[in-house]
Structures are given as C-alpha cells and as structure tokens.
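Give me the 3D structure for ABC-type glutathione-S-conjugate transporter.
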Amino acid sequence: MERLCGPKLPFWVVANQTLHTDSPDLPVCFQLSVLSWLPCVYLWLACPPYVFYLQRNNRGYIMMSIPNRVKTVFALVLWIVCWTDLFGTFNEMHQGDTQPPIYFVTPLVVGMTMLLATFLIQFERLRGVQSSGILFIFWFLSVLCAIVPFRSKILQAKFQSEIPDKLRFTTFYFYFSLVVVELILCCFNEKPPLFSNVDTDPNPCPQSTAGFLSTMTFWWFTSMAIKGYRNPLEAKDLWSLNKKDSSEEVVPKLLREWDLEQAKAHSAEDQSTQALYTKPPPAGESNHVGEGSSPEEVEVEVLLSKQKTPKKPSFLRSLIRAFGPYFLIGSAFKLLQDLITFVNPQLLRLLISFTKQKDAPTWWGYALAFLMFFTAFLQTLILHQHFQYCFVTGMRLRTSIIGAIYRKSLIITNAAKRTSTVGEIVNLMSVDAQRFMDLTTFLNMLWSAPLQIILALYFLWLNLGPSVLAGVAVMILLIPLNAAIAVRTRAYQVEQMQYKDARIKLMNEILNGIKVLKLYAWENSFKDKVLEIRQKELNVLRKTAYLGALSTMAWTSAPFLVALMTFAVYVTVDKNNILDAEKAFVSLSLFNILRFPLNMLPQVISSVVQASVSLKRIQDFLSHEELDPESVDKNNTATNSSVTLVNGKFTWAKQDPPALHNINLMVPQGSLLAVVGHVGCGKSSLVSALLGEMEKLEGDISIRGSVAFVPQQAWIQNATLRDNILFGKAYNEQKYRCCLEACALTPDLEVLPGGDLTEIGEKGINLSGGQRQRVSLARALYNEADVYLLDDPLSAVDAHVAKHIFDHAIGPEGALQGKTRILVTHGISFLPQVDNIVVMVEGRVSEMGSYQELLQQNGAFAEFLRNYSLEDIVEEEATVALIDDEDFPDDALSNHTDMVDSEPVVNEAKRKFIRQISVISGDLENPRSRSVRRRLCSERKHAEPDPEKKLPKVEKLIQAETTETGRVKVKVFWEYAKAVGPLLTLFICFLYGCQSAAAIGANVWLSEWTNDAAQNMTQENVSMRVGVYAALGIAQGILVMVSSFTLAMGNIGAARKLHYALLDNKFHTPQSFFDTTPIGRIINRFSKDIYVIDEALPSTVLMFLGTFFSSLSTMIVIVASTPIFAVVIAPLAFIYVFVQRFYVATSRQLKRLESVSRSPYTPISLRPSLALVLSEPTADAMTLY
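Predicted structure for ABC-type glutathione-S-conjugate transporter (1185 residues):
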C-alpha cells in the first residue's frame, strides 16, 4: 500500500491515534483505498451472475419514468464527478505537484463502477425489474463507507483555517449527496413492465410487486396485519395466491420430474432385462457345441445376476429437482445468519474487556453496544428471509404432493385400489403431506447444526484450549443414544401410520353408511371397533412420546454437561488456569449458541425420520400401476364406426382371470346399441372397458369423438340442480329446457322449493333415487357428446317414467337421435326399437344383431325373452290403460315412488317386475298412443314459464363451515387442561418452574465462582464449586426428564379423551346433521385435527412452557442483579404485549381460515371415471355424467 499511497499517506497509523483517543479517525490512505473500493468490488463481483440471471428471466419492458431518468442522470454525474478528481490529479501533475498513485487509481475505479451502475439501471428497466436489490446494497455500502470521509473532512475544515484541497473537498460532498439521493430513489418501485402478463386479479398479493426494502422487512404484509387487527379476517379479505405458488404451477412441475424419474427407472430396468437375456445358459441345457461353461462365462453370469433387482424411482430426487433451487436460496440466508451469530460473543468479549479498562474511551462502549444491536438486527432480517423461503417451499411441497396423490388416486389400476385404501389416501394427503411442510422449516438444521457446533467448539478452543475436548467427548457419547432413539421412533411411526390408516378407513365407511348404521342401532359396535384401533394407535404414540422425552432430556442437558466437563477439566488440569468473568461468560454465550443446534438436532432428526416414513408411503403409492391412457384410441378415423372393439380381452386386475373374452363390437355412427344379459354377465364391465377402466390384455378399442358416461349410481355434486346439469357449460335456456323435458324433470321443478336453483345436498341426499338418475342423464344430454355410454340409467325409475325417457331422450326419435348410444338395460320392452342388440353371457358376446334376427335365431336372446313373456302381457295392459286415459296428469311422470327408495326387501321382487313394464313392438306403432304422447310432449315443450312467478328464497342446505373470530376463548384452554387433568397440569408447570430454578442456580453459582477467581486469583474451593455446579446441572436434567415424561402422559390422556368425546358425539348426532354436512368436513376432524392433538400440540405446549419459564427466569436474574431494570420492564411489557396482540389477531384468524379450507375435498371413493374429467380436458374427453 505504500507504493499506492506514498510515504506521506500511511495506510495505518499507531493505535493511539485511531482507537485510544476521544476523537478517532482513519488514515486518508485507508479511506481512499479500502472504504472507496469496497462497494466497487461488491458490484463487479455481483454483476456477472446478476446479468446472467436477468438474461434468463425477462419480465417485460418498463417505460422510462422520471425516477429512472433521475437515477440514470445522477449515476452519469457521479461518473463525471469521479473523473473530475482524476483530471484534477492530472492537472496537478502537469503543474509539477505529483500525487501518489492512489489519487489516480481510486477515481478511475469508482468512475468505472458508476458507469457499470448506469448500465445496470437501464438493463434492469429493459428486463422489467421494478426494484433492484443488487443496486440497493451497492448504494447502501457506498453511503456507509462515505460516512467516515464525510466526518473526517468536516473535522479537517473545523481545525484548519483554510481547506488545502478545495477541489476534492467539493467533489466529495457532491459525490456523497448524489449517492444518498440514489439510495433514496432505490427504495421506490418502478412501474409494472409492459408486454407482460396482465394481472386482472382484483385483489393481487402485493408481495410480487414489493420492492427490495419492503421484501426484506416484510412491509408489504403491514396492510393485512392492520386489517386483521381492526376486524376479524374473512376469506374474502385474503389476497389471491401468487401464480408461482398456485397448484396449477407447482403440481405439474413435480409431476414432470416424477415422470422423468420413472422413465429413468424403467429404462434402467429394460437395460437390466436385456443384459440378463444375454446370460449364458446353464451347463446341460446349451444347444451349442461344447456345453461346458468357462470361468469367464460364470463370472459374467454372476455379474449380470446382480442387476436383477431394478432400481425404484426416487420421489425424493423429484422433490429436490422441482423445489431444491428455491430452497437453496433460503439455505444461503441460513449460512449467512449462522456466521453472523458468532459475531456477538466476540463483541461480548470486547465489552467485558472495555469494562475492565478504566481509561478506555467512552465511545468504545457506545460503538460496541451499537454493533451488538446492529448485528442482532441484521441477524433477524436474514433469519426471517430464510424462514420465508422455507415456509414457501413447504407450502409448495404440500400443495404439489397433495395434487400428485389426488391425480394418482384417479388413475391407479383396480388391483392397486385393493392395496391402497381410502383411509390411506386421506392420510397421505392430510398427515404425510403436512409432515413435509413441517420438515422444511428446520431442514437446514441438518447441516447448520453441525456447522454451528464446529464453529462454537473452535471459538471455545481459542478461549479455553484443549479442555474443550472433554465437552466434545460428551457430545460424541450422546450420538449413539440419539441414533438408537431415532431407529425405534421410525419403527413406531410406521406402525402408528398403519393404525391411523385403518382408523380413517373405518371412519370413512361408517360415515358413508351412517344411515344404515343408525337404523340398525349399530353405533356401539362400530364405536368399539374404532376405539380398539385408536387404543393401539395411542399405545404406539405413548412409546414414541416416552422416547421423545428421553431424547429431550439428553439434548437439553447436553450444553450444560459440555460446559460442566469443559470448566471442570480447565480448572483442574493446570493451577494457572483461572476461570475469570471474560472466559466464563464468553464461553457461556458460546454454550448458549451451542444449545439451539443441540436441542434442534434431535427434533429435526425425528422429523426426518417421520418424513422418511411418509416419503416411502407416498413413493409406494405413486409407484402403483396406472390405467393405460392409450388403451382406447380416440383418434381413429380408419373406419366409419363410432365404436370399434376387436378381439377384446379384459380383466379387472392382471393377476385375476379375464372378465371379458373375445369381444368384437362395431357400432355405426348414430346407431342405438342395447347390451342385455343376466346379472353378472359383464354388461357394466363392457362399458368400463370402453372407458379404459379395465386392464386390456388383448385387442383394440377405438372411439371416435367425445364420450359421455351415465353410471348406474348417479354422481351428484353439492350444488344447485341447474349447476349439476350444466356442469360448467354455458347456460342456454332453450337447450336446458329441452333436456329437462326429455328427462321428465320439468314437473319436479314445481315440487322442489327453489325450482332448478334448489341446492342439492352431498350425494344428492335431498333427491330420490330416480331424480338423481334423471339429473345425471340430463347432464349428459346437455353436454352434447358424440358417443353416449348409458349403464342401465332406467333401472332407478318407474316403468312409465322409463318409457318417457326412452321415447324423448334415448330412443330413435329422442333428443339423442343421430348420436351413437350404447345402452345397458334390463328392460326388454325397449329392445324392438334399438338398431342392434348384444347379448352377454359369462363375459362373452353370445349373440349380436337386430331384434328380429335374434328372435329368428332362437338362441340365448329368445330364451331370455320367453322367461319374461308373462310379465310383458301384464305390463301391456297396464301401460295401454295409462296411455288411453285422456286425463293423464302432467306431473304423473315425477310424482312417483322411486323403487330404490322403497323398502329394500319387500319391493325387490316388485322392482324386477315393474322394470319390464312397457308395450310390445306392435302397440308402439299405435297411432293413437303415439299422438297422445306427442301432444303431451308438445304441450310441455311450448309451455313458457310464468315470468311473474318468483321462486321463494331457499335456505342453503349445506352451510359453509364457519370460523371462530377474536381471541381463543379461555374455555378452549381450560377444556384441554381438563383433558390433561387439572392437578397434572399444575404439577407439570411446577416441574418446569423447578427446572428453570435449577438453571438460574447454576448460572448464579458460576458467577460466584468467577468472582472468587477475580478476588483471590487462586483456585480455592475448586472441588466444592465444581461439585455444586454439577449437582445443579444434574438436578436440572432429571427435572427435564420427569417433566417431559409427565407432559407426555398428560398429552396422551388428553388425546384419548378428546377423540372419544368427538367420536361419541358424532355417533349421537341426529341423521339430519350428516345430511347437511359434507363427509370431508367430518373426516378432516378425525384425521388432521386429531393429528394436531396427537403430535403437533404436545410439541407446542413443550415449547411454550420452556419459553415462558426461561423468559421469566431471565427477568428475575436481571432484576436481582440490576434492580433499576425493573423500571424498564413495564414499558417493555406494554410494547411486547401490543406487538403480540397485533400479530396474533391476524395470525390466529389465518390459521382458522386455513383449517376450514382443508375440509371440502371430494371423497376418494367417488372415483368412477372422474379421472376422465381431469386428465382429458380436450374435445375428445370422456366425461362423467
């Protein structure tokens, strides 16, 4: 530096002129080099990766605004100011006044950096950056480094009569003013970029447009916090989700990575299989000359045999590739925060040293106090940025995992559905996905904790020397204990999840059949079954809790044991080792830093163990075989047939025998095909095969155009009747009315309290079976598909209604004429009107042809008709009598008793009989009956709804789930305390108080110990000091273990009582509650909320008690040592209580809203062909009706 600054400008001077003085200052060379170059070095290092990032992420183009112009002009002026200094130096050299090289180098470097800043200002504008963090930090560093020269030049002007270097004095203050203005301008955002995706959201999240300063301080959230403090938040108050956090973004990202992972695994498996086929044949089986195997062949065989186990696709790798890069940004913040953490112990060392030096300048104390505050402030900013990235990653993980599981549940094979129960799938989406979200918060502790431990031990070594190795030995001895606990915990977690799956599966079955269960008074029997599984679950949970208590005791005592062993060895190995205040309390601050990673590491390991169990469960589920989406060819244009099936052979599961054999089917465009046969002959299986729901073993299927499917059991949504029919389509009045008329739904609208705007309950609970079936059929009609697959839609309605639906909707003159229809039916009276008939017998096509052709063949179909001949005669008389009645009422088609809702046993025979009621083919040509039918339909078709008639206001059947508002009532806490046990609760609090008292006693004793050493400078009463310190620490450890065990017992007891109360209440709840409450809402109480009580709440209670008593003990110690601090407690408490209430008001309500939003999920048991809605949104989609 002497070459740069010359002999007259030393880089550093004696400490007495800089530190040990009441007016400190830094040398001019130091100011011109280090302070001037530091911001420049930062910007040049940050620029290349930042420019590369901007090249890859173009957000649009921002018009040049006035602030942008001002920033650009001021940056150019800064360059001119710097080069004015440079040219002034050249001028001085020209005049013979030679200056040191530093006066040439610094203006040149700073000037070039200002040009770079100007370039970045404009490049960011062209790339759509509204707020620049890189430039903000640069201008902040520039202002910070310019403060010292700013003060120096003022002092110089103050103590000298004349300013010697007026040019540089003037240019510097120009420079300082412009840099401050640039910093202020950097705090404001630019306008949104042009040519970017226009955000039409009425309530967008301000985070996406927040500036760098607002992002770092979370200022963008202030408006929501104020709103939540003033009034309880509602769902409408919440901002819309950022697009990059939405499921439409994160779910496909994970699925892409998972598909790649599966493709790699399959390719590796194929290569392994190909390699295995090249294995030499065993001796005695070879057809080649020379049948003996050489040693090389045997070696090849052994090597190839190792490849027999194919590598499974790793779901973990997919998660890392999808969300790892974003999470690594949070990891970088965590690394920075860990390094800053160790600055405060060094500042504490300097502060203790300052208190010992009576002649030290006063500004030392202020500077150290400010540095400690600034370090803590910076550490807080960085730590919460780390948490923000972790929380967002966790949210994206949970969203994507739930989406992946839900999509998988819709497309797994029937064999996979046998192994993955509904309870397991619900738990995968609620519990297992939540575990990943919980893990990401502290996942970085896996590497951060060892790093903090290593750094703490390094500084302890500098402070206490080799004595630290005794503490290291204690930590190493605790590792096997923790490993053993982790292994056992993992085993218990697997077992617990199995019981949880079984419990949720049983609860799902109970809730789906709650009406039958209540009618037969089976509540107690099923309650005992649930409680039996719950007891097994709690037994495993108790073992896990006891292991957790043991782990908590070990790691809570670890920092103290490390400190005890270190101090004891330090004072005993050498008499000259004196434990003074500086060594003791700096070491204690390092031990306190050590406490967090040592406490968190077992919890993180436990969370990793739980997440690994969940990971394996999710990976196994996502690895299930899927239905082949290519099994049905939807783009076939080779033939004129709408549906073609050649040599089809299908099974429900590959290991099962085939359910359909040698199926050959060709359905011409616009024809009506009926599929008939006895019960169990494979009619519905044939429809499932056409939908791609079965495993295709042989043959080819092709379907031309879009497909609509009407299942036997109608699928009704919790929505209005109109919404159930429209199913997302645009409303067309004429088309809608025609569909209602064709499906005989028009008279029902007069009966329903709100007409077609009546809300339909979950599963169509307030509709009869026939009404549900007709709504399902009307939905299919309104969709206007090309091919209709109708799986016995007329079985749930009366015979005369079935005739109306066939004539007006399905039949040759119905609304679907010209469409291709495949009708599975038991009603033989409709068969003369169909184009072709397929007769199924034991999974095979027995006969196929027209009605007359099949009668002439006198085969299985003729036998089938002869069996029902008597019923046809009776039916003919009844139906003709109905048609001949001129006073046939309009609502007779709907005001009937649907057979599915009648008494099941008594009317089963009647239903089979009435299902056949219709007229034979000869009477269908009766002109009088046909004219009557047409007249009735025509009258209905032209009947206009009365515009004056207003539908009455109908109360909602399914009420939205409400959330509590305001504070959590004391009654809630009291209920949990009662569940734990009031006396046990008090005893737990007493134990935690004793634990904190022991910790206070240990610190007070250590303070006395250091005072002895300071007064006597000898090691008196060492054994007594060490012994008492050890006794207090051991007492603390025992109290921790006892309190943890007691808390675990209380929490398990509370979990049992609360679950029993919930279960008992639901079994005694009237049926009306289940009719108006979605099953998802109830299942959520038994899955997610019980999980919170079982596992999340105990750890929260543990954390609360530990923090409360720790804070209380800290205040007691400070007041005891510095009584004047008691004056500050009241205003500090007021501020903290206000901040806490301000924060909790919003946080609490957001938690409630989040809990409510979990409930309304579609039950997994309603899968049939719903996958077709989600996976094929194109015009050729197969859609469920």
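Residues 276-307, 870-953, 1160-1185 have pLDDT under 50 and may be disordered. Let me know if you want a second pass.
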